[in-house]
Amino acid sequence: MFLQILMRETDKHSQRILWREVPTRDPDIYLADVATFGSTCSPASAQFVKNKNAREHSGQFPRAAEGILQSTYVDDYLDSFGSEEEACRVSNEVRQIFRNGGFQLRNWISNNQKVLEHLGETQSSSSKSIISTVNNTERILGMLWDPLTDNLSFKTQMSGEVQSLLESGKRPTKRQVLRCVMTLFDPLGILSTFLIHGKILMQDLWRAGTGWDEDVGDIQYEDWSRWIKMISFITNIRISRCYFPEASTQTYKEAELHVFVDASLFALYLRTTNADGSPQCTLVAAKAKVAPLKPMTIPKLDLQGCLLGTRMVKFVLTSHSIPIKRRVLWTDNSVALAWIRADPRNYRPFVANRVGEIQETTSVDEWRWVPSEYNPADEATKWGSGPYFNDDSRWFNGPEFLRSPEDEWPSFMDQMLDTTEEMRPSILFHTTWEPMIAYERFSKWEKLLRSMAYVMRFSNNAGRTSQKRGGRITQQEFEAAEVEIVKQVQREAYADEVSTLKANQMLPADKRQSIERSSKIYQLMPMMDERGLMRQNSRIAAAKHLHYSVRFPLILPRDHRYTELLVAKYHRMYRHANSETVVNEIRQLYVIPKLRTVVRHIGRNCQFCKIRKALPTVPPMAPLPFARLAADHRPFSYVGVDYFGPLLVKQGRSNVKRWIALFTCLTVRAVHLEVAHSLTTASCISCIRRFVCRRGSPVEFFSDNATNFHGAERIHRENINHGLAASFTSSNTKWPFIPPGAPHMGGAWERPVRSVKIAMGDSYKEGKLNDEELPYSKPFPFGKLEWNKAIQQSTTRHFMRHLVQHTASA
Predict the structure, then answer these.
(1) Where are the domains of the chain?
(2) With contact defined as beta carbons under 8 Å apart, do 683 and 677 qualify?
(3) Cα–Cα dist 801/782, whole Å
(4) In terms of DSSP H, where are the helices of 209-282?
(5) How many CB atoms within 10 Å of residue 730?
(6) Fewer CB in a 10 Å sphere around the end CB: N or C, the chain?
(7) Mean pLDDT, to the nearest integer, of 688-701?
(8) pLDDT (tens digit per residue) in 231-248
């Protein structure tokens, strides 16, 4: 099949073959022109070409094209027909479609000799090319088919190791048991009543913790011995390939699909009616599944069986060519049947999810009850000696009542009289309070109270009363409205507690019940007053001079909208101020769990407080300039310079002013100080020249907009523009200034100025220095701020080179 599919030119390179005949030369490169065996894409490509070829001929040969698309398994064509004429015609068309695509169908096998003769095949010659077995049977998808009798059977001949184990009677291991169970291939589930016991045996071995190469236990060995004795019965099973060999095409138009489910197995039966009106039934498919290791009730297991049966019905209907007129699903568990017929939302998730899926696939009217003794799916739960493997057993032919009229089938009412698993009805009363007021629509407690007062006035005026009220709302109406609102809130939040306290009012003291200990307000010792309001019982009940509401405060829930409105009212009343004041005032009349949390929540959501406490957003700091991050440059490559002073210096009997020029490295923050005798440009240039001789010429100077700095920068720029040598620094040095109105941008040198001022102020308290002592004195410990050994080592070579150049130019 693969060799008939030509590869595209671009895809041939994926199948390159290197071939070397002589070791001394390079190998030859061959490209495979067709799909090859072993290539991962060859099966998919072959199926695509086969289906595409069939669709191209669907207009000319519709029945043959449909058969190729639906009845082809890899390279085998498997189909059934109602008559010899149809079989011959469709077979020729199928062969012609395949021949047009380059495929040649051969080795035809049929249960009709005339069809084989028409196709040019004989039964004997065809059998030689197929894997033959005993009794002239052929392999069809793992099962054995006898074309002469048109029956299906099973191969029970095991492998040599397993067969010797069965004949020897030795105790097997867990691995050998699994090998024997998996040897029997049953795609239709016909042997489900037998194979399910092998699967149960494997589950018992897992539960017992038996190792793969350990011998099974005594109990499992008894089940194993009983199970292998039944293998001999499987050899004699013969199942007709055709559902009803003597039926006509008209018979299948009245076909019904009956599904019998049980806790461990379900079986599907096809029921038809002959021309004389007599029903007949046969097995279509079955499936068995082992119950999970986790313990589960019988109704839930039966519900699992109902779900598997529903899924199997859906699969059979989508893959079956026989039209099904009616579906009937049978179960012997009344509880599972009642679940299926009920609303799934009334049950817990396990039952609700499975019932929901069952109701999506099937109709409730399609489910019926069957007694266990009539349920063929119940065979899987019983160890038998082989009677249900007979061709006439109810497992293969369905229960006897399916061959009777429908009015004689079991009914659910009969089951209700005889069942031992009755559904006992239970009545559950659950009281819920629906909110009368949409609290979310109100933004203030006062508006809510006023609206409730108007509603109660309208209700009172609409009733049969002679006192009609109008005008403004009175204080009594406000109080009545507040009482009614609190009642509604307590009923919504504490329905069980309110019901218990109301019932206690009608009972004597010795028969009253206390609220549940799991209640959120159990520790508050709630009580109910004469107006139906739930209050906290307190220790100050004897203080008659206090108001009743103070001695017995009302209980309110913390997560209710009414509580938020009430707390917000007190929050506004005390001018959005101290939260503790709000807490104290509320506790005079109300008990609210975690009140401080509620008060803080109201304060955070108050728009007035948000505006009052709002702070301007601090803008993000700008990225640092390169001068602050030049770690790969020597110190004092990027320098900030500033003046501070004046300092009073003794000169004879008078005092003169001196200033300090501070140079700081913007990268390592080292500080260099020079004495300036005046604020002139010449004095500034002298300070810079001394700094450069000591520290080297910087790349950039940064400073504020002082006139002496501008003068020094101007002289430096003019010398460079006229081609003259720089007077006090390198010609490559730049001197940017900070903006005039932004002194904060000079913080890099303003902060060291403050540190130097503080240190000098503490050091010069004893007396003043003169001009000779000031430059060489060390009045403050500036080792870390000024320079360290590493800075001296890194700048010595540059300083000496610059000093030589400066001396030469001078």
Answers:
(1) 1-108, 131-241, 245-426, 439-613, 626-809
(2) yes
(3) 26
(4) 218-228, 231-235
(5) 16
(6) C
(7) 93
(8) 777 777 888 888 777 766
- Which ranges of 101-230 does DSSP label H, i.e. alpha helix? 113-118, 123-129, 160-168, 174-183, 192-208, 218-228
- The string of pLDDT tens digits covering residues 593-625 is 999 999 999 999 999 999 999 998 888 988 989
Q: What angle do CA 619, 622, 624 make, to 5 degrees?
A: 150
User: Is the CATH number of domain 626-809 3.40.50.300?
Assistant: no
Domain 439-613 grouped into CATH 3.90.550.10: no
Q: Across residues 254-268, what is the average pLDDT?
A: 79
My answer on whether omega of the bond before 740 falls inside 30° of 0, hence cis, is no
Any long-range contacts for 547-551 (C-beta under 8 Å, 24+ apart)?
A: 549/589, 550/588, 550/589
Q: Cα dist. 147→111, 123, 238, 406, 647 in Å? A: 4, 9, 13, 37, 124
β-sheet bridge partners, residue 12: none
Rounded CA separation 515/519 (Å): 7
- Output Rg (C-alpha) for the chain, integer angstroms: 51
Higher local confidence (pLDDT), 269 or 486: 486
Which backbone phi and psi does 127 adopt, to 5 degrees?
Answer: -70, -20
- According to the model, what pLDDT value does residue 794 have? 39
- Do 245-426 and 626-809 agree at the fold level? yes
For residue 742, what are its two tokens? 């932004």
C-alpha to C-alpha distance for 37 and 722, rounded to whole angstroms: 88
What is the DSSP track for 564-576?
A: HHHHHHHHHHTTT
CA distance 527 to 519: 14
| DSSP-derived secondary structure for 480-496 | HHHHHHHHHHHHHH-HH
Neighbouring C-beta atoms of residue 7, cutoff 10 Å: 20
- For 33-61, write each residue's pLDDT tens digit: 998 888 888 888 888 999 999 899 888 88
Bridge partners of 73, per DSSP, are: 76
Task: Report the relative pairing of strands 534-536 and 526-528 from DSSP bridges.
Answer: antiparallel
CB 490 within 8 Å of CB 533: yes
Q: Residues 66-92: pLDDT tens digits?
A: 888 888 888 888 888 878 888 888 888
Give the sheet arrangement for strand 526-528, strand by strand.
526-528, 534-536, 554-555, 590-591
Mean pLDDT of the chain: 82
628's CB contacts (< 8 A; 6+ apart) are 638, 666, 667, 748
Torsion of CA 441, 445, 448, 453, to 10 degrees: 180
Q: For residues 252 and 273, give the distance between their C-alpha atoms in angstroms, rounded to a whole number.
A: 8
First to last CA, the chain: 101
Report the amino acid identity of residue 283. L
Contact 231/270 with Cβ under 8 angstroms? no
Residue 264 CA to residue 196 CA, distance in Å, equals 8
Given the structure tokens 């086969």, which residue do they identify?
50
What one-letter code names the amino acid at 325? K
* Nearest to 306, CA basis, from 243, 255, 374, 370: 370
C-alpha distances in angstroms, 719 versus 80, 197, 592, 733?
A: 109, 108, 83, 12
Here the tokens at position 678 are 């005046």
Q: How far apart are CA 43 and CA 31, in angstroms?
A: 19
Does this model's pTM top 0.90? My answer is no
Which CATH architecture describes the domain 245-426? 2-Layer Sandwich (3.30)
pLDDT of residue 560: 93
Query: Strand, helix or coil at 104?
Result: coil
